[in-house]
Write a structure and sequence with these properties.
The N and C termini lie far apart (39 Å). The protein has a seven-stranded parallel sheet with strand order 3-2-1-4-5-6-7, with helices on both faces. It is built from nine helices and seven strands, in the order E-H-E-H-E-H-E-H-E-H-H-E-H-H-H-E. Strand 1, helix 1 and strand 2 form a beta-alpha-beta unit. By secondary structure, it is an alpha/beta fold.
Amino acid sequence: MSCNAIVTGASRGIGLEAARALASRGCDELLVARDRAGLEEASRELSSKYGVKAIPRPADMTSRESEAIVDEARSLLGDIDVAFVSYGNPPCEPCEPADASWDDWQYAASMYLVFPARLLGRLARVNGRKATVILVSSFSSRSPMWPTGVSDVVRAGLPAMAKLFSRAYPGSLRVIVLELGSFRTPGADRLIGELARREGVSAEDYWSRVASMSPLRRLGRPEELRELIAWLAFSPEYLTGVTVLFDGATLQSL
């Protein structure tokens, strides 16, 4: 059976690892991000290494034009089996919550809530197959931290969205929220670099501090992430409307 996927944030970081994981399972993909050059490089890598169709589609997930992504993916690939929804952080982060502007909060809401809701809605209405949708979040959405407080607060709504759409459209959608711990991605490097600069320490020292938050005393590894994503995408149907925490026991609360 063929597999068709949409992967957002696919030019680098978590989204690119997801694209690799799904390509390893034979999925043709529509790769979505703002970075055209990064998407084209990812497309070449996936096509060459895995022999799949990987189509770059530059788009801004905070813009209404991103509503066309599901329809474009279906016209290019056919009905969608998997959608992996990843995104960066709001440009203001790391920022003090009190200093985040109206536009900062609106940007985060558009990217983390409005775009996934519209993607889920379109899949429910037009897709000819039951799609598994994985929405990326962070362990810190359960206990917001000031440097990423805007994204933490807004993404706290994703479990409710997964529950709503999984219950409302059980024949069309299976929705899973994936709350991640710390992985060293380009976006995380930018964030950690800025925090380290503000404290007058090296980025490597700051990363060591982040790694020590897990009792494993390390960060998550890309191969672990790829393994989990590949499994979740094709996991049992009964796993739906849930939130999966993958953080190396970093979160201390239940």
